[in-house]
Write a structure and sequence with these properties.
The protein is an alpha+beta fold and 412 residues long. Among the domains are: 10-150; 281-412, Histidine kinase-like ATPase, C-terminal domain (Heat Shock Protein 90, 2-Layer Sandwich), CATH 3.30.565. The chain is built from 14 helices and five strands. It has a five-stranded mixed β-sheet, covered by helices on one side. Helix 1 (10-35) runs antiparallel to helix 2 (43-63), helix 4 (75-90) packs parallel to helix 7 and helix 6 runs parallel beside helix 8 (156-245). The mean pLDDT is 80.
């Protein structure tokens, strides 16, 4: 049988059936005993007791969630096989009577039709039609095999008797096929609905990403028109004050030089932040090409050799993950350019077993005490980005050998 998840409603329907069947056979035993109290050991009594006990056990089995967790995909097949095999063989008890009548067996088998049709419906509901065929083949072959030894003379009446199981099997096949087609149609509709929901979520994410991009561009314009212009004007004012002082008050000039240095640094960082806010490479090119362009631009700017090994077919990542990985690459490259004194960079991005791995290597001086102080905030920012993504960032360095930055994160 297929190891597909149990369809919604199958277990609930199965429980309802076993409860009703248990009450039915208990009532039959009680009525028959009241009508014929001296026939307590008849085949009817035995058959009713067997089916009552089987449905009682099945009801407890279907309510025991621990068994469902323990048996997993075997849980439902065991119950369905039990609900099929026991009623089928219980009807053969009439053959043990001294006057085993095949006509009586056929009559009783049609009385068991409602009992067997429910497992048939559940099988067609949960599994493919080949399992329905196996159910029909089993119930039909068992009954015909049991009837054949009782046939003393083959005549028209006996042919009709032997044909009754085949007729019932044909009815089972029609019922199973109709239910199977209905369930398959429902499955396809459910899959279409799921795909539509995924597309709607993707559309909503796209709209959200577009709104975020517009807001970032608006913030970039506001910061450019206010903070950047203010810092530029402040630099000009400080330079003017420095010129007016001339050679007097060296102590003030030292403070001015320090203020100018900090202001220029602030302006440079502000422009970098504005560039980051306005960056649309991820939206336009995707993560792979955006990282490739970023790395090539950084290598060209610093005169470095760069070896790129980026997997072409990356899985679809959320905008937050792409943004986080892109920023970590950007910060790592800036740290190498500013502090590593490197000549070559190796950058790898790969995905294997739902794990995304980013590795950035350089052949620089490594993280010395001075560079650790200088780019401490950069490394801390990279660590924080990695943690927000649910990943792990590891930085290893050896003096005169270089530094390795590796990001690993599990993909959903």
């Amino acid at each position: 049988m297929d190891k597909r998840p149990i369809e919604p409603g199958v277990i609930r329907t199965f429980r309802y059936f076993t409860g009703i069947a248990m009450l039915y056979f208990a009532t039959m035993v009680g009525w028959y005993t009241a009508i014929q109290p001296t026939s307590g050991d008849s085949a009817f009594h035995i058959q009713s007791y067997i089916n009552f006990g089987t449905n009682l056990l099945l009801l407890g089995y279907l309510w025991w969630d621990w068994l469902r967790r323990k048996l997993k995909h075997l849980y439902l097949p065991i119950a369905l096989i039990t609900a099929t095999v026991v009623p089928t063989f219980s009807n053969l008890i009439y053959l043990t009577e001294p006057q085993g009548d095949p006509y009586l067996i056929i009559t009783r088998s049609w009385l068991l039709f409602p009992v067997l049709v429910v497992p048939l419906v559940l099988i067609a509901w949960q599994y493919r039609f080949r399992v329905v065929v196996a159910f029909i083949f089993f119930s039909t072959v068992v009954e015909i095999s049991a009837l054949l030894p009782t046939v003393n003379k083959l005549n028209l009446a006996m042919v009709q008797v032997l044909g009754a199981p085949l007729l019932r099997g044909f009815a089972f096949g029609i019922v199973g096929d109709v239910i199977g087609q209905l369930i398959e149609t429902q499955r396809k509709q459910r899959e279409k609905l799921l795909r539509a929901n995924v597309q709607l979520n993707q559309h909503a994410n796209t709209l959200e990403q577009l709104a975020t991009t517009r807001e970032r561009n608006r913030l970039a314009r506001e910061l450019h028109d206010t903070l950047a212009h203010t810092l530029s004007g402040l630099i000009v004012s400080l330079e003017a004050i420095k010129i007016k002082l001339g050679k007097e008050r060296e102590d003030i000039k030292v403070s001015l030089n320090h203020a100018l240095k900090n202001t220029r640094t602030g302006l440079s960082e502000t422009r970098r932040a504005l560039k980051d806010l306005r960056a649309k490479q991820l939206e336009d090119l995707g993560l792979n090409l955006a990282i490739r362009n970023l790395a090539n631009e950084a290598a060209s700017r610093a005169g470095l050799e760069i070896d790129l090994n980026l997997k072409e077919s990356l899985p679809e990542l959320s905008p937050d993950v792409e943004q986080g990985v892109y920023r970590i690459v950007q910060e790592a490259l800036e740290n190498i350019i500013k502090h590593a004194n490197a000549k070559q960079i190796t950058l790898e991005l790969s995905e294997d077993d739902d794990t995304l791995t980013l590795t950035i290597l350089d052949d620089g001086i490594g993280i010395t005490e001075v560079t650790a102080i200088s780019n401490g905030l950069g490394l801390k920012g990279m660590q924080e980005r990695a943690e927000r993504l649910g990943g792990h960032l590891e930085v290893s360095s050896h003096p005169s050998i270089g530094t390795a930055v590796q990001l690993t994160m599990e993909l959903p």
